[in-house]
Amino acid sequence: MVLPLKAIIFDLDGTLIDSAIPFREMKKKIITFLQAKGVEEGLLSDEMLSAEIIDLAETSLRQQDSSETQLRDVLAQVESIMNEVEVLSAGNATLINGVPQMLRTLKKRGLKLGVMTRGCRQYTRIVLNKLCLRRFFDAVVARDDVDKPKPNPEHAFHILRMLEARAEETLFVGDHWSDAECAKQAGMRFVFVSHGQDTKKARELGYPIIDDVNDVARFLA
Fold it and tell me: pTM, whole model, 2 decimals?
């Protein structure tokens, strides 16, 4: 039996907003820093997710017998690099057309709304306030609000608790395979917003695909 929909969680960058974060440049900075700390050259690529880069680097440094204190220091410095790049770009983020009207419609239907993002807390706060979106959301969980951000399901479980919603009665809307993977591991429903991108991962996982986030209303039944 399919439970009635109680909550909708949205990814932020690429789903509700057009991000101005220079992701590739940010990852290159992270890789350069990690290699200077001893991670072997060639292991990391700016084609990877930031989470993949960090996980591989952590494994590499552990194999080199880095202490927990050293690892924590390296990871904290990586976090600082990411935060700085994100915050510097926040003022250039723009709304995807129709998003405020779509969110207003969902709120009127009595749904709880949330944002789950790999952006840092400060960046997320700046963007949501700048674009007048914060008022629509009952919960916002950024990368640094959890120990293990998406695609790890811990991120999803955290925001589900805040929304007081079960995974089976929650729809997650995102534009990246990591969003789809997070939804799968957490047991949430999922809709992939393609924006003309490759939808292979979403198709492999059997999730529906929409071209525009504003089409999410047709999944409310």
Answer: 0.91
| Cα–Cα distance for residue pair 76/108, rounded to 1 Å | 41
Residue 48 DSSP code:
S
Confidence band, pLDDT 50/70/90 cuts, at residue 202? low
For 7-19+93-219, which CATH superfamily applies?
A: HAD superfamily/HAD-like (3.40.50.1000)
Q: What distance in Å separates the CA atoms of residue 43 and residue 45, rounded to the nearest whole number?
A: 7
146 and 160 Cβ atoms separated by less than 8 Å:
no
Q: Give the number of other Cβ atoms within 10 Å of residue 56's Cβ.
A: 16
Residues 6+ apart with CB under 8 A from 82: 26, 30, 50, 120, 143
Question: Which band of pLDDT confidence, cut at 50, 70 and 90, is reported for residue 204?
Answer: confident
Order of strands across the sheet that contains 170-174: 139-141, 112-116, 7-10, 170-174, 189-193, 209-210
- Please give the DSSP secondary-structure letter assigned to residue 1: -
Beta bridge partners of 141: 116
Q: pLDDT tens-digit profile of 2-28?
A: 668 999 999 999 999 999 999 999 999
